[in-house]
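The records we work with from here on pair a chain with its fold. Taken together, the C-alpha cells spell out the fold as the letters spell out the chain. To see the layout at work, look at the sequence and C-alpha cells printed below.
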Amino acid sequence: MAAGFNALAVEEIVVAVSELATNLARYATDGAITLELVDKDGASALRIESVDSGPGLGDIDQAVSDGFSTGGGLGKGFGSIRRTTDLLDVQSSPAGTRIVAYKWLTRPSS
C-alpha cells in the first residue's frame, strides 16, 4: 500500500482528504490541500493540511460536531475527518481556516 499504510488506513485517508476538498470547493476561497510524510512525536505520519482564505468557521466546536451543517448537508464531513484521522487541529477566523490532520503510520511512543 501507499507509503506503507494498510488498505483500511488508505481508505480513511481518502475519506478525510475528500471531505476537506469538498469543504474547500463549497465554502472557501483560494484553498489548497497538502499531503506530507513527517515525523511527529517520535512517529511516522501522513500530515494532511487544508488552508483557505475565508470566510471562516465561526464556532469550531459546533462545526466539527456530527449533524451540524451550514450548507444543508448531513453534517457528517468534519466528524468523518475526526474519526478517520488520529489527530485533528482546526484553527479558523474570518480571514481563513487551517486544518491539520495526522494519520499515523507508526504510533507515537508514550
